[in-house]
Amino acid sequence: VAVSSRNEFRAWLSAAALAGLAAWSIAAFPAAELVPRAKMLAFTAAARPEQARLSGSALAFDRPYGEFLEAVRRETPDDATIALAIPASEGSYRYAAAYLLAPRRTVLTGRLAEAGYVAGYGVKAKLGTGARPIVHGALARLP
Amino acid sequence: LSLVARLAAVGLEIGAAAVLGRLLLRPLERGLSRAERWAWALAGGLAAVAALDGLLLAARVRSAPLTLGPLVLAAAGAAALLCARRAAPAKSATPPAGSPTGRILYVLGALAIVLFAFEAVAEPMWSNDFLAIWGFKGKTIWAASAVPARLFHDPAAGWSHPEYPLLLPFTMASLASLRGAWDDQALALLFPALALGTALAASGFLSRLRGRGAGAVGFFLVATFFPLYRPFLAGMAEIPLALALLLAATAFLDLRDSTDGPALARAALASLLCAATKREGAVWVFLLASALLLGGTRRGARRALSALAFAVPAAVHGIGLRLARGPVADRDFDFGLLAPARLPELLGRIGALGDLLLRRAVLPMALPLSLAAFFFLVSRRGGTEALLPPLGAQIAVYAIALAFCRFGAAWLLEVSLGRIVSALFPVAALILASRFDAAWVARNGNGPSTRRMETA
Fold first, then answer.
1. Which among A22, B330, B357, B446 would be 20 to 30 A from A84, CA to CA?
2. Measured between beta carbons, which residues in chain B are less than 8 angstroms from residue A49?
């Protein structure tokens, strides 16, 4: 009887410890994000995929930058190498550009010699430079 | 197409890959429960579709619905024909009906996966590692219908980790090719599907080992592990890696009992999946191979055979990748520290890890670690404890790797230690659920024992 009750006690203790672990794990569920994500889902379900991408978390750090990249994508061929004048110190700008413009190759302006195009974010196209204005920036084809 | 239609299309593709996996992996299924069969089929089928996509690209044929689709159908047809010629497959090891508590655990686990799916597909995948590494490579491979050399050797894209293996990018690229569109919102469905596969693998193995109750607990523990199954990790390699690590763990436990052909083949497949998903996967299979060599219950040739089943596929994958892409720079780790002249520096770095790990990794996790330690004190042996040494060694490798980081151990700990350790949780859940079941069985005076389901 003593062994049985000790086993019973151990079983309940193990159940309590495991329940505690499960509770810790479940507490990591981002419940506060449920409503915002439901709203996001409703929006993206009605939007075109490009709109959904531009409105998503990936470009939350700078929404106009997404529109600029989308304009560069529309204006350049898939096999192009594009030199980007962007805030290079921030990884997010480089990663978003590489992903959104893939399979195009993207480099920073330090590698201008390797590029067929140069695109500047937040830059105004100057007359006589061969650059033309695009959304939130300028794009030029390099000789 | 509406989002619902796009999600349905990706869901159908994943389902079709799982069916292909069932057809291809039938010879490996002997002794597995039904849930395990589907888990292996999901992982194996997705890898098979990715491999067929790779074959097309190697043959310089554009990967598209009209090229990859027929190839997948042909592979499924060939596998079905070959299987039809063989004897009828062994019946799955189906445990007796579960208790109401078990059913509740399955329902709650399923609900957790639905919640994860809901959050994962709410928007296009967005984490930095998806954009910079996994999605960048997958989209490039899909759009270029090739694996451009610049994915490995472009100095302007060194941040994309050219040294990482390519199974996940190829999986996403192949699913995109089947549909003819790169849809980074609908593709997010892949990750809840892999979560379901992982929970099924855990529950199926535990049901076979200890009974339906343990299976239900394993399913619940894995499915509700939100530190891993969260929208931020959709698009990254930890979720597929968790499935591969778990499959390898179950193959390891099976190999301790039997070295028959299917068990060895499952170990080899799991080894390949682990190594092709992430470098941590290769570490895991080499640790499992070492554990079999050093601590196996069998002797001589069989022990060596079991270890080789794990070690050879991962080694072949590593060598093959090295030959195919040439040497690549490792941006994060400085293995030059292993040079004799720099050993004092390395030892100094390792010495400094203790304080950092205590403050930034152990203390923030004091509650779950204490609960786990207490659980181990009061629970009983569940038949899965052989996983503890490789599991501990894997975490030790992660910790020591911090000392090699070029950007400082604190940085690497901050950005990756938590999530790479969380990918090991499904393996830990096997141990937790089996020990819990053992304690619960002993409560009724039956004594701790493992029960293996008989197969026909």
1. B330
2. 124, 183, 185
**pTM reported for the whole predicted model:** 0.94
Q: Cβ A18–B139 below 8 Å, yes or no?
A: no
Tokens found for residue B243: 């499935």
- List the Cα angle B247/B248/B251 in 5-degree steps: 90
| ipTM value for the complex | 0.94
> Which residues on B lie below 8 Å from A118 (Cβ)?
none
Q: Which amino acid is at B340?
A: P
Residues 6 or more apart whose CB falls under 8 angstroms from that of B398 comprise: B280, B417, B420, B421
SS3 B405: strand
Nearest CA in chain A to B124: A53
Tell me how many helices (H) and strands (E) chain A has: 5, 5
pLDDT in tens, B138-187: 999 999 999 999 999 999 999 999 999 999 999 999 999 999 999 999 99
d(C-alpha B106, C-alpha B100), whole Å = 10
Do B126 and A96 lie within an 8 Å CB cutoff?
Answer: no
Q: Do A25 and B367 touch (CB under 8 A)?
A: no
Q: Are B350 and B407 in contact (CB under 8 A)?
A: no
